[in-house]
Each structure stands twice: as structure tokens, then as C-alpha cells.
Amino acid sequence: MNIAMKCFKHSGVDAVGTCKYCQKGVCHQCVIEEANGIACSITCAGELNKLEQVSKFAQKRVETSKSKLTIIAPIFNLFLGGVFLYRAIQHPDPSNFLLLLAVFRRY
Q1: Domains in the chain: boundaries
Q2: Angle at the Cα of 32 (from 31 to 36), degrees rounded to 5?
Q3: Full-prediction pTM beyond 0.90?
Q4: pLDDT reported for residue 103
Q5: Is the separation of the CB atoms in 48 and 34 below 8 Å?
Q6: 51-91 pLDDT per residue, tens
Q7: DSSP conformation letters of the chain
Q8: How does pLDDT run across 21-57, given as a tens digit for each residue?
Q9: Do 38 and 31 form a contact (C-beta atoms < 8 A)?
Q10: Are 14 and 31 within 8 A, CB to CB?
Q11: Residue 13 contacts by C-beta under 8 Å, 6 or more apart in sequence?
Q12: How many C-alpha atoms does 6 have within 13 Å on its Cβ side?
């Protein structure tokens, strides 16, 4: 028994794909090919293009954040190391070393 998805507009025609936005089956007559996928209507094609723009924008923001983090993280680590060193020099108590070990043991 062959069960094939049918077109959402033409119930007797087998679908050749699904709309990337709404996941409805589409036949050769209904398909709208976009650069980023198949759409079933002009409305879905427009929404699909909007989603693609949002996705590209978010991807650029993530890449920018990663590059900033690679600069900020070492600076923050040096600052934190300086704070611990200053505290160790000002208060030469063995419990400071134990506190430091407790902090790193959590990770």
C-alpha cells in the first residue's frame, strides 16, 4: 500500500514537497520555489523570507558576541587573578588558599 502526501489544494494530486513555512503538501502546480525553500503561497513565501532575514541577523549577532567574548574573557580573568593575588598579599591567611581551592573544585 503506497501512502503519498497529497497537495493541500488539489486533494487528488501527489505532493512533490512541503512548504517550508507551514508544512503543507504542494504539487507541481502550487509550488513556489524560493532561494531558501519551497512555499505554498505568496503569503508563506513572504513569511519565509522574513524568517531568513531574522535568522541571518541572529547569526551575525552570535558571531559578533563570540568575538567580543574572546577579548573580554581573558581581561576579566586577569582582573580576577589580580584581586586574588592582592587579597593573598594583604591578608596572608591559609584560609584564603583553601577558599580559592573550594571555588575551583566546583568547576
Answers
A1: 17-105
A2: 120
A3: no
A4: 64
A5: yes
A6: 999 999 999 988 888 777 778 888 888 888 788 778 777 87
A7: -----B-SS-TTSB-SEE-TTT--EE-TTT-EEETTEEESSHHHHHHHHHHHHHHHHHHHHHHHHHHHHHHHHHHHHHHHHHHHHHHHHHS--HHHHHHHHHHHHT-
A8: 999 999 999 999 988 889 999 999 999 999 999 999 9
A9: yes
A10: no
A11: 6, 7, 27, 29
A12: 8
CA 87 to chain centre: 40
The gap from C-alpha 56 to its chain's centroid, in whole angstroms, comes to 10
Backbone dihedral region of 2: left (phi > 0), alpha (psi from -120 to 50 degrees) or beta?
beta
Amino acid (one-letter) located at 84: F
Show the cell assigned to 56.
541571518
Contact yes or no for 47/21 (Cβ under 8 A)? yes
Separation in Å, CA 86 to CA 20, 80, 89, 90 = 58, 10, 5, 6
